[in-house]
Amino acid sequence: MNYLLKALVAKLKGEVAVSKANIQVYMLNSAGIGEHPGIVEAIETEVEKLANAEEKIETIQKHFSK
Hints:
By secondary structure, the protein is an all-alpha fold.
């Protein structure tokens, strides 16, 4: 895999980590999230981001890894 795809995978892994962290915050400390009445919707949004980034990583690895 060339350096550009490696950089993209690293970026996507960072997005996965951010989404996982946000989900943990919502689940463990939702009282600390001011002005956020739709916790379930916020978690769903983060799960969508997480799944999207993971799908992209899998696609890159499937088509461009040796």
